[in-house]
Amino acid sequence: MTWSAAIGRRVAPLLACVGLLAAWQVAALALKNDGFPTAFEAMRAVPAILGDKEALINILASLRRMTIGFAAAVAVSIPLGLLMGRSRAVAAFFNPLLMVIYPVPKAALMPIIMLWLGVGDIAKTLVIFLGVSLPVIYHSFEGAKAVEEKMLWSGAAMGLSSVQRLVRIVLPAAMPEILTGCRTGLVLALITMITSEMIARQSGAGNILFNALDMGQYDTVFAMIIIVGAMGIGLDAAFEKVRARLVRWSEPQFDIPLSFS
Amino acid sequence: MKVLPSRSSEIMAQVPAQQPATAMIEIDRVSQIFQTSARKDHLALSDISLAIEEGAFVSILGPSGCGKSTLLYIVGGFVSPTSGSAKMKGKTITAPGPDRGPVFQEFALFPWKTVLGNVMYGPRQQGVRATEAEAQSRALIEMVGLKGYENFFPKELSGGMKQRVALARTLAYHPEVLLMDEPFGALDAHTRTRLQNDLLNIWERDRKTVLFVTHSVDEAVFLSDKVVMMSRSPGRIRQVIDIDLPRPRRRTELLLDPRYQKYVVDIERMFDDSDEAGANA
Amino acid sequence: MKSRALSMDVLLGLLPIALLIALWQGLVSFGVAPVALLPPPGFVFTRLLQQLATAGFQQEIIATLFRLFAGFLIAVALGVGIGMVAAASPAINRVVRPLVRVLAPLPKVALYPALLLLLGFSHESKIALVAADALFPILLSTYYGASTVEQKLIWSAMAAGTPRREILLKVVLPAAMPSILTGCRIGLVISCIVVFLAEMITSTDGLGHVLITAARTFQAVDMFVPLITISLLGLILNALLQAARSYLLRGFPEA
Which domain holds residue B183? Predict the structure, then answer.
């Protein structure tokens, strides 16, 4: 009973992938559009991209920037979010600023940042950093705010200093929320990375996509979509594994990402 | 029923004694098994049979986990039994219906509707015209003592007031049986006493059939004609006790009445005995 | 007492924004950043006000708003519909769940080239991208809200004589409303962001296009103007949704 359910949970996403590809294949065959190759044709172009040394270097460089931007954002945002959650003054100080920044598309800052810092790695990493920060701050803030006051009183009674309480009580108690934020941030890092590369058109996965589009290499366009899509799904699945392990004690969560930005 | 006693006996006389004093609710060898984990089944109710006559106030009394609420949900048609059946007026219960009105411990009021909106929901659902439903609902709200609160939202009311609204909402669609699932369990002692008194006063008006689930011995004895004692794991009926106390009952008089005291003490002793037996096992 | 604490909070909140503008002004005044790269704030805000008054700029705003709303509304209709049905029917749930599991973390912007090829370079592809991005937060929070509706609320309605098929509309939808509106709020911000990005990547009008045109000609002032405009639009739309929310959820505790 549970066995088959567990297998079903594993296999269902794979079946969904196969189903989506099949739907694509049928749609492409039915439409007979030059700009819409079949799933099979697109998949056939994937090894060609991954085998091309320059393309591979480009993609790996994208991933490196993404990792650095993500790590830096998490390192800054979690402490900030936790402080905001536990101190009314800190929250009042930062909240309006964050509200103003929230609806600004971070990747749209790319042209301005490029103006100041050039087109190098720093500009692109900075944009990713900005994109990841907000959801992580927000979720850490919510998580820290929801920590029960009496838990902190117990900690204070045991002689923990305020810094110790933040690290040893608030941080673990808010961990499920924080990880939700990190998961959102991870997907957002990928999105920001691709978008900024699409806008800057210098290098990277996003650039390959649009170069191929401009040159009419539609197989490559769709093959890149498959690659980027697989990166998103793969990163999310990997993170979910880590998350489930880290917060085994918490209520079982949905196995699909709940919030987004 | 109370208003026209002679008429109803006439009708009874005309109909040949086909079903002499049929039970309003008949629970017939009901068992309920829940799957707690992959390989473990939990026998929540084991072979329960019980008949409830029309107009009777019956309490189901037992420790938590004895399946008393589950039994109520089966009568409500919210849960279907693993085996056996529950019948209402001879018809097997398969789904919830407006002939059986629940009142839950959690109130379960619609948060997006006002007090009036909540009470009007049932009549409107029954196809009563809006103006008429509103007039009826206002009268009911007054009856449960909440006149002036018609346009309040549930969140603006105290727990006791919320339960009054829940009672009015259920009474509004004229169920033949009231199913009360520890309705006063979430209230403080003072509010609970007041609501018990008010419930009895309202009940005295038309003496609807009531099935009342509780874990409080005083409450069961004070309110009921009959107390069904249940024991746990598996949930079984231990004993059914008729409470032979005069009505209308007044709490202050009853507390001094040795008959009332004896019922309470006897029932508590029986539970103590079974607890000791359980502890020794 | 409470209002005093509140106004203190407001002052405290305005402080970092004021500091940021002061720093910005300082950088220009002390010649750290050349005016060509970082125009002074006063200059930028005057330019913003000038632009807001011109018909041309208003046209760009309208183009952006049209795509934003079209995409957002499609996302709301699909997200709430699918989310409710997936919560109500185990059979549909078994199909929707794995699909969402796969599609939600997929970076939708990567689909943009495909949408361009399929739907053309006009409104449709941008609206489709906005809808695709805003869909999942709305769908997921609807699903979450609908599947956690208190059982006894449904039982109460059923006992009052509500037929099974009406329960979804009469009980589950209003009971899930807080969660649905949270999803809509996230979806709205995403719509703002995505419509702007889509216009930056390829477009002939809209606020994103204004930014790209300015970037090509190195007009730093005109690069700030559309960014501030989209931020303001986001704040206004968020405030409107917040107002709708506090009306719709007036009966709910802690809305």
Answer: 21-99+175-280
CB contact under 8 A, A92 and C38: no
Chain B from 48 to 107: CB within 8 A of any C CB: 76, 78, 95-98, 100-102, 104, 106
In sequence order, which residues have a C-beta less than 8 Å from that of residue C22 and are 6 or more positions away? Answer: none
Query: Does residue B227 lie in a domain region?
Result: yes
Query: What are the angstrom distances between the C-alpha of C18 and each of B15, B241, C223, C229?
Result: 88, 76, 21, 18
Query: Looking at chain C, which residue has its C-alpha nearest residue A234?
Result: C105
Sign of the Cα torsion A196, A201, A204, A210 reads: positive
Nearest CB to B108: which of C150, C161, C177?
Answer: C150
3-state secondary structure of B84: strand
Q: Comparing B16-30, B76-90, B118-132, C142-156, which segment has the lowest mean pLDDT?
A: B16-30
B153–C155: do the CB atoms touch at under 8 Å? no
Q: Do B169 and C156 touch (CB under 8 A)?
A: yes
The predicted pLDDT at position A8 comes to 66
Asked if residues A180 and A246 have their Cβ atoms less than 8 Å apart, the reply is no
Q: Determine, for residues C235 and A100 on separate chains, whether the beta-carbon distance falls below 8 Å.
A: yes
Pull the structure tokens for residue B99: 């002939």
Q: Write out residues in chain A with pLDDT < 70, as ranges.
A: 1-9, 250-261
Q: Distance between alpha carbon A113 and the CA centroid of its chain, in Å?
A: 21
| Bond before B81 cis per omega within 30 degrees | no
Nearest to A97 among C16, C98, C110 (CB): C16
Please state the length of chain B: 281
Q: Closest Cα to residue C80, out of C202, C195, C152, C172?
A: C172
Integer Cα distance of A180 and C239 in angstroms: 25
* Domain annotation covers residue B223: yes
A179-213 core/surface letters (b: 16 or more CB in 10 A; e: else): bbbbbbbbbbbbbbbbbbbbbbeebbbbbbbbebb
Give me the total of CB pairs closer than 8 Å, taking one residue from chain A and one from chain C: 188
Count the domains in chain B: 1
Q: Is residue B219 part of a domain?
A: yes
Residue with tokens 């018609």: B150
Q: Does residue B199 form part of some domain?
A: yes
Q: What is the pLDDT of residues B84-100, one digit of tens each?
A: 999 999 899 999 999 99
pTM of the model: 0.86
Complete domains list, chain A, with CATH: 34-248 (1.10.3720.10)
Residue pLDDT, tens place only, C29-69: 887 777 778 888 888 899 999 999 999 999 999 999 999 99
Judged by a CB distance cut-off of 8 A, whether residue C152 touches chain B is yes
B169 has a chain C CB within 8 A of its CB: yes
Question: How large is the ipTM?
Answer: 0.85
Tokens of A36: 């819409």
Cβ–Cβ gap C162/B102 under 8 Å: no
Residues in C closer than 8 angstroms to A101, CB to CB, are 231
The CATH code of the domain that includes B225 is 3.40.50.300
Question: Any idea of the CA torsion for A28, A31, A35, A41, to the nearest 10 degrees?
Answer: 20
Paired tokens of A178: 């924080």
Indicate yes or no: CB of C201 within 8 angstroms of CB of A195.
Answer: yes
Q: C61-77 in b/e burial notation, b at 16+ Cβ within 10 A? A: bebbbebbbbbbebbbe
- Give me the amino acid identity at C202: T
Cα–chain-centroid distance for residue C82? 20
Choose among B98, B121, B153: nearest Cβ to C251. B153
Residue in chain B nearest C249 by alpha carbon: B112
Residue in C closest to B76 by C-alpha: C159
